[in-house]
Amino acid sequence: MNKRCAELETLYHDALLKDVIPFWEKHSIDRECGGYFTCLDRAGAVFDTDKFMWLQARQIWMFSFLYNHLERRGDWLETARHGAAFLKQHGMDADGNWYFSLTREGRPLVQPYNIFSDCFAAMGFGAYALAAGDDEARDIAVRTFRNILRRRNYPKGQYTKAFPGTRPLRALAMPMILVNLSLELDGVLDAAELDATMDAAITDILTLFHDKKHNLFYEQVAPDGSRPDCFETRLRLPGHGIEVAAFLMGAARRRNDSVLINTATEIMLSLLEYGWDREHGGIFYYLDADGKPPQQLEWDRKMWWVHIESLVALSLAYLLTGRDDCWKWYERVHEYTWPRFADPEFGEWFGYLDRAGKPFLTLKGGKWKGCFHVPRGLYCCYEAFRRMAKE
User: Fold this and answer.
1) Which domain does 112 fall in, by range?
2) Which of 76, 140, 301, 353 is deepest in the core (most CB within 10 A)?
3) CA angle, residues 71, 77, 81, in degrees to nearest 5
4) Which residues in the chain come in under a pLDDT of 50?
5) Angle, nearest 10°, between helix axes 53-69 and 373-390?
6) Is position 331 within any domain?
7) With a threshold of 0.90, does the pTM exceed it?
């Protein structure tokens, strides 16, 4: 096992530093207008210049994170600074809410309707503040985080399409991101404030969204945790749930909470059993909790982030528990993922496979895929296997 862990440590380290990060360094930096290009074709050519806040902020976070945790390289810090300078100037409206997208030059395109723009901005500026010792970036992260807390019960505010009062729903994504933000902003915000936010988010996840009968998650529920019968409350995203389980493991690891580690591990394994495509392999994107036809036409697609986040969760679960079922599932997901998503010819990973496992879009970045899930996942798996090989 030590030999296998050492092999995997090398695989993830080399894929991160010799393939994926160089791809983004070479192709994504907009040296003329600032920020990053994210719409990149298979070979890295830019096919659209609009700038999406999620991906801009995530790339700031990624290079800051590598600087903080892997190696204090000046070029990584400069790449993070390059994005932070662009977003400081163009990213927010007058009230401190983060737009969804900008033109290449930084003019607002889409209003700040999506609170996850703010979530990733807080995450990115928090990591950059720690990397650069930048007080302005720290202030931006703190103000944004507190704005998120103010908006969390009505995240879309005036931009919501739902008619008020008819069918109010809460989304798993909100407490999920608050757990992650509470982990990521350690050292930026007061520890007591972060602990209180994390405690409330974990309680919501495990009381409102946890389907205890099947040991799975629902994506949306009524504010009291009940489920009116509709598309939204029947929705399950196995990969999203696995990502939630990984964040719960991260919180439990921070607190040395073995009960929460085991709870999150069991949920993760249930989601893998539930979401695995037994005909073609891989993990389904969307499923209906009652077995009815999913609303999303792309329900059977195999997505890059689902599979890399599953490898993250499984490697962390095995590191923390040593359970054989976690290892067997890790190998199963690994054997599916690496030959299909990684592109040995042009680098980086394909994002979108059909049900049979063939790329139906060969782009490497777009409106949703950028310099985040793949490099972050490669680092997390590298770090897990480095520790396992050492121990």
Assistant:
1) 47-161
2) 140
3) 160
4) none
5) 20
6) no
7) yes
